[in-house]
Automatic annotation (TrEMBL):
GO biological process: glycogen biosynthetic process
Organism of this sequence: Trujillonella endophytica
Record key words, sorted: Glycogen biosynthesis, Nucleotidyltransferase, Transferase
Lineage of the organism: Bacteria, Bacillati, Actinomycetota, Actinomycetes, Geodermatophilales
Keyword set includes Nucleotidyltransferase: yes
Name of this protein: Glucose-1-phosphate adenylyltransferase
Pfam entry (one): Hexapep_GlmU
Length: 393
């Protein structure tokens, strides 16, 4: 019996405002993670290990940052003559052209392409979370359930639940209630932005909803589509038992890196049967020079450490000079921390130059330095600050 025909749509078009300075010049899926990876590597690697060869990536904001990383899709075995990787930029020429105004609106704009592909199941995923999942398992469960949508779910902290779509699950996995980013969440069971849809039924429903909401628009999947499917009793849940973390905010992004610094990280990114693939560059081995100290950290290729590094992630090309100290921080590619500077509990974007004797961050909220800035010698950037300050003219 042939495998079901599965199409994965990766939603990579949003600006990602919650990541602040990290997404000023790149799309959220292109944000680096764990030194050498990008966030979009997680869904694409899941596709590869799930034996799904048809993957469409919907891009809009800063699309070049995603396109440069994906290239022809070779790291994920998506460089194929037929099928494989396809980029879906905004377009003109039909009533569905123009800028996408939310995830459901984006799906509606691509509806004719999806119908033409004629998949048995449509998997729609975001690209701002860290997790491992066999999408085929979810597809198989969906196709045998009679549901119109299967929502992959996970448990989240009660004080964080209002950021997600929250469900109440009944007998047999039926979703009995769905609320999108509720002020007072009824449960802590959240949808983790992986959905398997029955394509024809879902697209027909989207057409009807588009007529119904009119100028208000379809907005996000959780605005109209998922609530309607839940009300009609055609939504089911698929619980994800393993690790999942949304890294769509600066604190969550920092916390996820701390998870991967643990002695036993939540996901083995080098697992022989399920490695995380990426389009990597060419870098020499990391160098730890005489007199340097490194403790509980991740060092990528091309890094050079002459100072002290503790509990931190150093991306390719980072330099920590003698006498500099980096603690509990994430340094993205090409950062230089000069002699006598300290960086504590900070996320430092690409190409930042932290001047000699600077003090960046400290105990408290996470400090964020924007891409390519030069922090003048001796500058103090307090804990929780954004440098440069986006509110300054």
């Amino acid at each position: 019996m042939p495998l079901p025909r599965v199409l994965v749509l990766v939603l990579a078009g949003g600006k990602g405002n919650r990541l602040e300075l990290l997404t000023e010049t790149r799309a959220k899926p292109a944000v680096p993670f764990a030194g050498v990876y990008r966030l979009i590597d997680f869904p694409l690697s899941n596709c590869q290990h799930s034996a799904i060869a048809d993957v469409w990536v919907s891009v809009q904001y800063q699309p070049q940052s995603v396109s440069e990383h994906l290239a022809n899709g070779r790291p994920w075995d998506l460089d194929r003559t037929t099928g494989g990787l396809m980029m879906l930029p905004p377009f003109q020429g039909s009533e569905r052209g123009g800028w996408t105004e939310g995830t459901a609106d984006g799906l509606w704009r691509q509806a004719e392409l999806v119908r033409g592909f004629d998949p048995d199941a449509l998997v729609v995923v975001s690209s701002d979370a860290v997790y491992k999942l066999d999408y085929r398992e979810v597809v198989d469960a969906h196709l045998g359930s009679g549901a119109e949508v299967t929502m992959v779910t996970t448990e989240v902290a009660a004080d964080d639940a209002a950021r997600y779509g929250i469900v109440r699950v009944g007998k047999g996995g039926a979703v009995e209630d769905y609320a999108y980013k509720p002020d007072e969440p009824a449960t802590t069971t959240a949808t983790n932005e992986v959905f398997v849809f029955s394509p024809a039924e879902t697209l027909d429903r989207l057409e009807a909803l588009a007529d119904e909401v009119g100028e208000e628009g379809l907005e996000d999947l959780g605005s109209h589509l998922l609530p309607a499917q839940t009300r009609d009793g055609v939504a089911r849940a698929f619980p994800l038992a393993g690790y999942w973390r949304d890294v769509g905010t600066v604190p969550a992004y920092w916390e996820a890196h701390q998870d991967f610094l643990a002695e036993d990280p939540p996901i083995d990114l080098d697992e022989r049967t399920w490695p995380l693939h990426t389009r990597g560059g060419r870098h020499s081995a990391a160098r730890v020079l005489d007199g340097a100290s490194v403790d509980g950290s991740l060092l990528s290729g091309g890094t050079r450490v002459a100072g002290a590094v503790r509990g931190s992630v150093l991306s390719p090309g980072v330099i920590v000079e003698a006498g500099a100290t980096v603690v509990d921080s994430v340094l993205l590619p090409g950062v230089r921390v000069r002699a006598g500077a300290t960086v504590t509990r900070a996320v430092v974007d690409d190409g930042v130059d932290v001047g000699a004797g600077c003090s960046v961050g400290g105990d408290g909220d996470i400090t964020l330095l924007g891409r390519g800035v030069r922090v003048p010698d001796g500058t103090e950037v307090p804990a929780g600050a954004r440098f440069p300050d986006p509110d300054d003219d």
